[in-house]
Amino acid sequence: MGSSSSKPDPFPPTRGYKLRPRYNPDWKPSWTGPLKFNVRYRNHEDFSHNKELATIDAIRLSDNTRVVLKHVSTATDEIPIFRYLTSESLRSDTRNKTVPLLDVIILPWTDEIALLVMPMLMQFDRLPFRFLSEVCEALEQLLQGLVFMHEHKIAHRDACWRNFMMDISRVVPTGYHFARWMTEDGIRKEFRLVPRKSVAPVRYHIIDFGLSHHFPPNATNYNFIGPVGQDRTVPEASLGVPYDAFKFDIYQLGNVIVTLLDIYEDLSSLKPLADAMTRRDPDQRPSATEAYELLVDTILNLSEDQLNHQRIWKKRTPAELRHRVEFCNENPLEYY
Q1: Contacts of residue 156, Cβ cutoff 8 Å, sequence gap at least 6
Q2: Which of 58, 195, 197, 251 is deepest in the core (most CB within 10 A)?
């Protein structure tokens, strides 16, 4: 992240953010060592990389808060929509699940890009769910967020897996390494994981408004033509045919629930909701409010034992790991 003499420092110290060093102080390239032809690259820091090239982590100097800087184009509606959703008048609504916008850094040498500063969160699914109540809590908040956005005439248009995040401040008290999320230090030290249920409620957030669209306040028709996001399976997805952007959001979030059903056992109670939200005919899908009410009704029909005492498992969880969780009071990190 060095800067040339011909350009101003993109992260001047007076701005209040400090980038994490990219390497440990004693780092040496793994390919220069004595075992360079047999080296296990996954055990070396130079194997680590951030696939999301538009983001990088940093420290806010005023309070040592870990943050993420996101590189965005000023030609899109992302910044104005993000600013609107996090405006003072909207922040007080508890249904607003928009990730907090901490700062906008305008780069001094261009007006084409800017940096958005957000809290350092984690993708909502990366830590294992242990109880049905934990899944329901996440879905309830995400649906609330969609209801809120739609009430304010905003279609997310990429309401998909990688754009749903969780605040891990109480679930992973030590934090995690941004480039190698399964570790605390970026090398091998795994972080301590606290069960979500024991620190509930866990806060969930919606991110990435690069494809979002803000309809006029008096709009009654939400048809839209434009590129799609991560989920290309939405039946009406097309660059040339108008589609209802709100029902598009419903399908995308519904497909997140379908994926959870594929990954976890014992989530069958959520299947009717997933089926309703992913109907091929957009007109047959519920609105965000109706989907939220369907989820609430589903939760109310579940017993306390089903919600908070019966374990749920990833279908690929081995018997040995299930035993450690169930009978040895362990909560190891799983990743398959």
Answers
A1: 146, 149, 163, 206, 209, 211, 212, 249, 252
A2: 251
Alpha helix segments (H runs only) across the chain: 78-85, 88-91, 132-151, 245-263, 271-277, 288-300, 304-308, 319-327
Over range 19-27, report the average pLDDT. Answer: 66
Distance of alpha carbon 176 from alpha carbon 191, whole angstroms:
7
CA distance 69 to 17: 10
Continuous segment of H or E residues that includes residue 170: none
Q: What percent of the chain has pLDDT over 90?
A: 66
Q: For residue 165, which of 136, 124, 200 has the smallest C-alpha distance?
A: 124
Find out whether 129 and 82 touch, Cβ atoms under 8 Å. no
Q: Could you identify the residue written with the tokens 């590129």? A: 227
End-to-end CA distance of the chain: 33
Is 336 or 157 the better-scoring residue by pLDDT?
A: 157
Single-letter amino acid, residue 63: D
pLDDT at 149 over 50: yes
Structure tokens that stand for 92 in this block:
């007080």
Which string of DSSP letters, residue by residue, matches 41-110? Answer: GGGSGGG---S-TTEEEEEETTTTEEEEEEEEETTSSHHHHHHHHTSHHHHT-TT--BPP--EEEE-TT-
Q: CB–CB of 215/238 below 8 Å? A: no
Tell whether the model's pLDDT for residue 271 goes beyond 90. yes
pLDDT value of position 239: 67
Report the pLDDT value the prediction gives residue 144, as an integer from 0 to 100: 98
Coil, strand or helix: which one is 206? strand
Beta-carbon count within 10 A of 192 CB: 12
65 touches 119 (CB < 8 A): yes
What was the pLDDT predicted at 74? 93
Q: Alpha helices of 102-244 — where are they, by DSSP H?
A: 132-151
